[in-house]
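pasting for the record
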Amino acid sequence: LAELAAELAATPAQLALAWLLSRGPDIVPIPATRRAGRVDENVAAAELCLSSEQLERLDRAFPPGVAAGTRYPQRQLAAMGI
């Protein structure tokens, strides 16, 4: 991710958001941020135009199902009563 982001003069976060945005109109990423500057960075991700080759590289690197596990650490799940 970092390598391709550098090729595009973008941050890895921008590339990840651009990739998600390319998945279709029914995919709406909701990035969280704690700093105002990151809002501008996130918005700029919508301006990234990824080629089909770049999208294929990302699809190969992050195929469906490769991410697994719980969303939160076990301790946090227990605190939520889950």
